[in-house]
Amino acid sequence: MRNLRAQLISILAGGIALFAISLIKANEIELPEIGDRSGATISPEQERDIGREFMRQLHNSVTIIDDPEIATYLQSLGYQLVANSDNRGQEFTFFIVQDSTINAFAAPGGYVGVHSELIKNTRTESELAAVMAHEIAHVTQHHLARAFEQGSRLSLPMAAAIVAAILLGMGTQNPDAGFAGMMAAQAGAAQLQINFTRSNEEEADRIGMQTLIRAGFDPFAMPAFFERLEQVSRYYGPEPPEFLSTHPVTRNRIADATGRAEALVTTPQLTARNQLQFYLMRSKLQVLTSDDKKQTVEQFSQALKTGRYLNEESARYGYALALTRAGNQNEARQQILQLLKKDTDNLAYLLVLAQIETAAGYFETAFEIYQKTLALYPNNYTVIINYASALLQGHQPHKARDLLKKQAQPGRGTVRIYHLLAKAEEEMGNRAESHRWLAEYYYYIGQIGMAIKQLQLANKAVGSNFYERSKIEARLRQLQTEATGKKNS
Ligand SMILES: [Zn+2]
Predict the structure, then answer these.
(1) Which of 115, 357, 393, 442 pairs as cysteine with 451 (C-beta 3.0–4.6 A)?
(2) Same domain, 112 and 254
């Protein structure tokens, strides 16, 4: 394992050295004007392929927070910005990486990652939106893709590995960072050559600000967040937060952002966007990313006692979540019922209540809550995922399968459904079906090799049913063609 990796790294490092040289040249060439794609040698399809491959590698090296409620929230916030950006047709995927450094990054093809620690350091939804708008602008302006134009002879995995090395930067303190992290270490000096240029950063700030305002967020959030980052960086000493090492915050940058905000906002026309969901998801993230369950309970309890919180409801919600996670279902229930008294149909609260009843072993009560919630929010992905998980825990795999099957629609945003379907089938003893769903799961997270393996297992398990076997074989052929097609491109 180690040897193979070491070999790969030395091959790739050689590639990077070559690549860095061509980039130094590229920097001397004038970059095309904004929006001018005439000089581009990299196609949108290539960008998308690099992005997909980057995501596949990323899945192996970092933890992506797959909580459907948080993911849905981030995706909807992102799309409110995209709808007001300079390229509304571009497809985007927004996701959160569990990481204790402050960072955000954007890969070709519209893959925008935000570190959990960055979100924990925001104080308003507009601050988070400001960072995302900046990253969206890097994508719509094809900044990273342009850096590749000189290096387009690179193979796809190599291009993606370099993207990972650039974007994840010095994230090598973590020895488990895996391939991308080691790549970054090897890339070393080369990476400095291919960081976004200062003019890219300036452009992303400027265009990001326009998007932010058009989408109805507070433009002053951008300088405010930069300012806070600068303060935070003083505590870090010589090692600044990741976002700062790739995005240095200077007095100039803060002043520029403030100036732009003042110039662009004639009359503040902020959308009356309900910020509650931002605060709730921020609390949830705090709970999910903490290792110390008792300490988290204590933190929220103290916040409520002293009134030191950004938002009272979200502090109580975080408290309830922390309590149920620490096993104190009775106190958790009391807290969430208090919130539900004032806000009876709140989706986040109903989900926690159902989660508490499941954890307490009151499955029938939990199922009733889920049914009521599903009636209020029909076809809601998060409700379906949570309800199905609870049904599985309560040993009702048939019901779980029926619920999930109604919702199973292919897509990269709904992969959890396939995973749960595989579990349900497994519990019912249908091994072939279970492997088939797992294959779809792997396929949609970009692990095509694993998907093929699962289909082969399904083929072995299916027995003599001709109809079932031909379905599996057809899908297998499809994926094999796709896999070889990729290798040759
Ligand atoms: Zn940037």
Answers:
(1) 442
(2) yes
